[in-house]
Amino acid sequence: MPPVCFRSGNDAVSSMSRHSQRGRGGRDEGRDCYGVAYSPQISLSTSSVKEIEVPSSALEISMMQHVGSAGNTSNSLRPRKEKKLTYVLNGADDTKHCAGINCLCLLKSLGQDEFDYLFTGSRDGTLKRWALAEDAAAWSATFESHVDWVNDAVLTGSNTLVSCSSDTTVKAWNLLSDGTCIRTFRQHSDYVTCLAAAEKNSNIVASGGLGGEVFIWDLEAALAPLSKSNHAAEDECSNNANSLESSLPSNSLRPINLSDNSSQKATQSQGYVPIAAKGHKESVYALAVNDQGTLLVSGGTEKVVRVWDPRTGIKTMKLRGHTDNIRALLLDSTGRFCLSGSSDSMIRLWDLGQQRCVHSYAVHTDSIWALASNPTFSHVYSGGRDLSLYLTDLSTRESVLICTEEHPILQLGLHDDGVWVATSDSSVHRWPAEPHNPLKVFQKGGSFLAGNLSFSRARVSLEGSTPVPVYREPSVSIPGIPGIVQHEILNNKRHVLTKDTTGSVKLWDISRGVVIENYGEVSFAQKKEELFEMVSIPSWYSVDSRLGSLSVHLETPQCFSAEMYSADLNIAGKPEDDKVNLARETLKGLLAHWLTKRKRRLGSQASPNGGIPSGKDMSTRTTCLSRVEVDGNAENDSTVHPPFEFSAASPPSVITEGSHGGPWRKKITELDGTEDEKDFPWWVLDCVLNNRLPPRENTKCSFYLHPCEGSTLQIIKQGKLSAPRILRIHKVVNYVVEKMVLDKPLDSMNVDETFSPGMPGGQILPPVGDTSLLPGLKPRQNLKPSIEILCNNQVLSPDMSLATSGAGMVMDDLKTGNGIWLRSYFVHVKFVGIVHSSGNACCDHKIIVPLRKSWKPIRCQI
């Protein structure tokens, strides 16, 4: 809702609604940051003078700072908040990760001429496949569908990769494809943190998450095609938006512990339901399954190891001993022994037959986040928050420090004679480890005996007996791209300043998705000050760097509040006074490839206005004029202007959600034109296809013109004025010249075209602004008064906008109020601000305080 001011006599009333925002913070260590009412819109005019509108009454509502509101009112047609559209700006080299690597897994080649493959899952939301050579790794494919961090991944069978994410989904992929997601499961209610697969039973996969849920999946049944009857029901609740034309229909699954029998029956009729292992009351961070898939262990923030029968989901035992979150679990091939690593810095070896801990190993000085064992389960590799990778002999308790990473270690993967290490950095390294003959590592020296109490290892470290790493450099490295760790939206609302993990500062143009300047390693704060512009444009998007790159979020109707003149955007072929809606043009640029593909598919079936030809398209949404309006200034075509052209070399990825299913992610160049209202928010399609926008809020501001005290000039009585926020000051000058000077009778002027007596100097100065735009000027009305506009005693530039002059200038001294003076000899006019009776300003461009009866509109004092 906009702040609304009513003026009646000396009373003024203001109201303002507030936004409600939802967000999630980080969960546990190591996983950092895991109805709307509208006002009718007045049509816009492109005339330089007519853009200033004169209401018929001074009692008209003033929309000074108009921002969108969340929630619902009795008159609202939207029952809930609309779905947003996000686009992720990818770096120049999209074959590399740009955020920490949370997981990795390895696939051995099936023949001599084939490669071994490494799969990595990242906090940038993607998985990548790497072809491994003896001393190198080459990018092979990117798997893109998750919309949040990828937390774990496992291989099962001969051609299936399963991943889980903080977006609460589990996805199955064809691992030898170019990135095809064959199924998405939405069973979990919170972040999915871990997976486990049975090596010799390719059907069994378990998943656990922060909701305390553990599900056991039979992949053969879960990926089986549905019957025709079920397929029809599935069409209404499909969740596989990333693979729209997949040969396997997607599932929409719900937890099987639903109390509502009707809901449970509906779920079962739509597809496979996994087995739920019930018992966890808190978050689950670690899972492990034996080779045959007959035993499952889990651990988390409850500090206990639970043992389950995955065939039934029944808990068989619970093991206590750790004093903090359990982060890593391993089972030997027989299911007899279990290894656990915890945030209490301890490794424990459990005998499941005896149901007790038989050994504990104090090797690390901080949390343990990753474990891997050699094939015989005689040695364990461990890593964690202390950046160290250790090898420990489980029988002799002898340990050795293999290497030290620069970032915390998140997961390990043994491969041939080395171990791949995933860290919170975007790079992956392989270190020599000799998993088939660990004694070779111990022979290099530097070993020590692991203690059996956590404080014993810490005490040794404090005494200066820190082990020396066996290896200083990795044998193979897969470099990543530095991730963005700091960002700032600049005042022009088109550029974002960023700083990455290497300290490099860059300037991004979010309407084109490119870096326009790389400043190198400079002061971020200083560069931000240098780029400061005195300009006020509504905030039409939000940005975050959670995925290591810039994610730009567009939400209706707020995203349509920003406009600029085509001349300011240097758009050739358009009149300089044409208003350009930044969000609309950005959406056109993002979906240009999709629109081209769509037109080719539809052909002659497309409707004349480019709308969706299906009978059920968006008729219920677009026919209500109180909710949408046609942008009459913009062409109804797919023309993309240069300031909004996205690079085809590094195209951004779109993250959004339609009327069916859940969120999905794709590069804009991979959209095939089949996506429709089931995949995109309705307001996006209505904008791009039908040229319709929601009511554009915050596009106008209201003000009054009053003669200065002591002035003999009579002003035309016209009440409050309304003009676009982006209107330039020189056009206000033009308006003042025409309405206040040129409309004066000619007999009030001297023959030499000077003002009446009292005019100092008797000479007219050149005008400020382009007076040639004034309509209706007669040759004899050849006045050229000099007019200056001041705010807080500062002369405003003729090119400054109303929004900037009425908002940005008050930052110098809010107590002076919000006033603009128009000065030309005897022409002194100023805007009226709302000031408390005590003299303190009650509003600025960001904060509007609701008015009380003791507040009254008076002229701002400068």
From TrEMBL:
Keywords: Repeat, WD repeat
GO biological process terms on file: double-strand break repair via homologous recombination
Spans annotated as Disordered: 1-32, 237-265
WD repeat windows: 143-175, 185-220, 277-318, 319-360
Record's signal peptide: none
Residue ranges crossing the lipid bilayer per the database entry: none
PROSITE patterns, alphabetized: WD_REPEATS_1, WD_REPEATS_2, WD_REPEATS_REGION
SMART domains the record matches: WD40
InterPro entries documented for this protein: WD40/YVTN_repeat-like_dom_sf, WD40_PAC1, WD40_repeat_CS, WD40_repeat_dom_sf, WD40_rpt, WDR48, WDR48/Bun107
GO molecular function: ubiquitin binding
Domain of life according to the entry: Eukaryota
Compositional bias (Low complexity): 238-253
Keyword NADP: no
Family listed: Belongs to the WD repeat WDR48 family.
Name of this protein: Uncharacterized protein
Organism, scientific name: Fraxinus pennsylvanica
